Prior knowledge:
Shape: globular
Distance between the termini: 37 Å
Order of helices and strands: EEEEEEEEEE
Helix content: under 10%
Mean pLDDT: 97
Strand content: over 45%
Number of helices: 0
Low-confidence stretches: none
Strand order of the largest sheet: 2-10-9-4-5-6
Number of strands: 10
Structural class: mainly beta
Amino acid sequence: xxxxxxxxxxxxxxGSLRLSCAASGFAFWDAPMTWARQAPGKELEWVCSxxxxxxxxxxxxxxxxxxxxxxxxxxxxxxxxxDSLTAEDTALYFCVKGGKLDTPKGPRGQGTLVTVSS
Length: 118
């Protein structure tokens, strides 16, 4: 399993970023996928998940209505659109193979850093 995140960077409060994860080494089309994040000094936090067939998506209350998850099965990619960013969204964001319950121990990439600051 290989997961490579990209798209992080510096954003202003109220701004947007789009994260992307390139997946390989497994049957991507058959796996639910998740985005998780870890803020400085805090534990890993589940953010959003999407089913293998995109029928269902759901996100944590802290980001619901601001973040959305999507996937491109033919190209083995999963994305996280982040809008209305706040300083509390500052974290290292990870792409995780699996659903919400897989977040703690599921295979994940190296992460991409998102910093929200003016």
